[in-house]
Amino acid sequence: MSEADRYTLVQRLLHWLLALLVIPALGVGMTLGWLGFEGARDAFGVEVTNALYTGHKTMGVLILALMTLRLVLRLTLGAPPPVPTLTWFERLASQVVHALIYLVLLAQPIVGWLATAAGGYPVQFFAWTLPGLIAKDTDLSENLFQLHGVLGWALLALLALHIGAAIMHGYLKRDGVMRRMSLFR
Fold first, then answer.
1. Beta bridge partner(s), residue 130
2. Cβ–Cβ under 8 Å, residues 67 and 106
3. How far is CA 98 from CA 51, 71, 73, 90, in A?
4. In 3D, which of 70, 33, 67, 17 has the Cα closest to residue 148?
5. Which residues of 76-115 are buried (b: 16+ CB within 10 A; e: fewer)?
6. Mean per-residue pLDDT for 55-76?
7. What gap in Å lies between CA 175 and CA 168, rounded to an integer?
8. What is the pTM of this model?
């Protein structure tokens, strides 16, 4: 496989950096969603709970920024040609799953940002408080947090498909698909 058959190094680095952010962001978000603030506070204490919320929001802002960069790079640099051994269904499934992952990874942090602001909570990025962008509206906040949760579950399902396909191509079919995004030769 030549370098022309792979994503650029910057695209590959962004992919893996986002994976390192998305997995813990999902885990923390789902934990906080299940427990709620009071449940998390009772389980972990106030300081840890606040740190989890701040960390989750920070990861969300980073994911939004990096996904925006990734989308720009994808639109300007494109993607390598499909592996010739892929079936038409594999190509279609890959395109649909990748497009949905991009969509959810852009929408999820935006919805979370708006839900947080509408709830009257600070939108945090590390130690900074970012603009809320919308006024406080408790009903809207509740609806947006529900959508944020649904997007989280959708992302989890999409990532399961994505990782499952990567494992299939890398270890069962051994057709070179995994090399396209690998950081190694």
1. 123
2. yes
3. 31, 11, 15, 12
4. 33
5. eeeebeebeebeeebeeebeebeebbebbbbbbbebbbbb
6. 98
7. 9
8. 0.95
